Description:
By secondary structure, the chain is mostly helical. It has helices spanning 6-19, 21-61, 73-88, 110-120, and strands at 92-96, 101-105.
Amino acid sequence: xxxxxYDDMMQKEIQARMESSAWDFSIAxxxxxxxxxxxxxxxxxxxxxxxxxVFTVVFIFGLGRDxxxxxxxxxxxxxxxxxxxxxxxxxxxxxxxxxxxxxxxFSDDMTSLIDDAxxxx
Length: 121
C-alpha cells in the first residue's frame, strides 16, 4: 500500500498557485464577475421599485386626468343602464324624445316594484 503525503501535496499546490499569475487573474475575474452580477441585480431591483412607486402615485392620485370628471363614471353609467334595462324590461315603456330616451316605470306601489326587482335580479 502506497502512503500519500497529503500535507506535502497540499503545500505544493498552494505554492504553485501563489506563484502563478494566471491563477490570480482567474480569481480576480471571478470576483469582478460576481460584483457586476450583484450590481446588475441591485440596479434591476431599484429600477423596478422606482417604476412601481411612480405607477402607484399616478394610479392613486390620478395624475393626468380631469379632476371634475371621475374616471369610472362612463363605465358605471353604462353598467347601471344595462342592469336597469335588463331587470326592468317588462315594466319599462321607452318614450322617445329628440334629446334622449326616458324610462317610465309602471307599478302600483314602491313595495311591489322592489319585490319585482329582487325577483328579476
